[in-house]
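Practice problem 4.
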């Protein structure tokens, strides 16, 4: 592989690197990591990072492949751990690792993937770029966000502000890391790099809010994961938080066990989905404004708009 790649070459190289990493694990764990290859996601963080890393000549540093593969493996580790916590049977249309092989095995595999992601990030040729990215900091942010969510499971008094703080770590931090890593490889001006970071954070927030709505609006076949399940797993998301805030009678009922019909009815009556969509749209507009103000080459701007639109729709 040459040191500079086209956009398509870089995307393909990341997919190959992720598959190679999962399929070439030590023999004792290979069976489990190979199972994860079949449930490949949309690689939206890869699309983000590679687009941000694109230079004025349209070419991308090979280091972007290492960073993107590291982010994808880290994301995969968080999903493995999420599925254990949620006792989920399905992920991306496939049986979860914890369902197929058991929770203890899945915990260890998730830990292994976390270590591998840090090793991949550190394998870039320019160590200064790795130090600047500070991947361990983003791992910490994601872990704190996940713990924050877990601590607030079943918390019917969760405020909107507190919830947005949770998802800024749980989801948005990894998007921010992707945009930041790409910018580190293509930009030198700190102010511009910080704009990329802000763009990634906004798109991550948008992504999670859209995902919150999917739990109410889509089927399992479309979403490729269980729907109408957040509350059942103890996760309180924005549409429900808004309904609890607006409906005192429903809030009183929430002191006991709520049925799915009661939740759906209250969310619909209160306008919880509409509120969440409006907030998501605000993040969309903020993100679009940043892309336009970065004054990028049209091809790169279009790639970032594509990531933005994909995060806004998910399907």
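Answer key:
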């Amino acid at each position: 592989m040459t040191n500079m790649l086209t956009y398509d070459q870089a995307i393909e190289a990341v997919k190959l690197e992720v598959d190679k990493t999962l399929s070439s694990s030590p023999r004792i764990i290979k069976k489990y990591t190979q199972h994860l290859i079949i449930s490949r996601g949309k690689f939206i963080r890869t699309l983000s990072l590679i687009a941000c890393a694109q230079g004025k000549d349209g070419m991308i540093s090979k280091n972007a492949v290492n960073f993107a593969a590291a982010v994808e493996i880290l994301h995969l580790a968080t999903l493995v751990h999420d599925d254990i916590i949620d006792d989920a049977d399905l992920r991306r249309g496939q049986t979860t690792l914890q369902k197929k092989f058991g929770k203890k095995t899945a915990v260890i595999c998730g830990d292994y993937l976390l270590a591998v992601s840090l090793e991949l990030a550190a394998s870039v040729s320019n160590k200064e770029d790795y130090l600047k990215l500070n991947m361990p900091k983003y791992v910490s942010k994601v872990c704190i966000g996940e713990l924050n969510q877990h601590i607030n499971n079943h918390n019917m008094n969760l405020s909107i502000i507190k919830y947005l703080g949770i998802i800024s770590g749980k989801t948005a931090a990894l998007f921010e890391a992707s945009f930041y890593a790409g910018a580190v490889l293509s930009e030198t001006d700190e102010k511009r790099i910080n704009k990329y970071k802000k763009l990634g954070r906004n798109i991550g927030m948008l992504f999670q809010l859209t995902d919150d709505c999917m739990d109410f609006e889509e089927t399992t076949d479309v979403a490729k994961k269980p729907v109408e399940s957040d509350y059942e797993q103890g996760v309180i998301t924005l549409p429900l938080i808004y309904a609890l805030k607006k409906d005192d009678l429903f809030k009183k009922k929430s002191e006991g066990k709520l049925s799915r019909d009661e939740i759906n009815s209250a969310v619909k009556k209160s306008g919880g989905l509409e509120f969440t969509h409006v907030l998501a749209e605000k993040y969309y507009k903020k993100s679009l404004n940043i892309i336009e103000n970065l004054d990028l080459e049209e091809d790169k701007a279009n790639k970032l708009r594509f990531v933005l639109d994909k995060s806004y729709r998910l399907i």
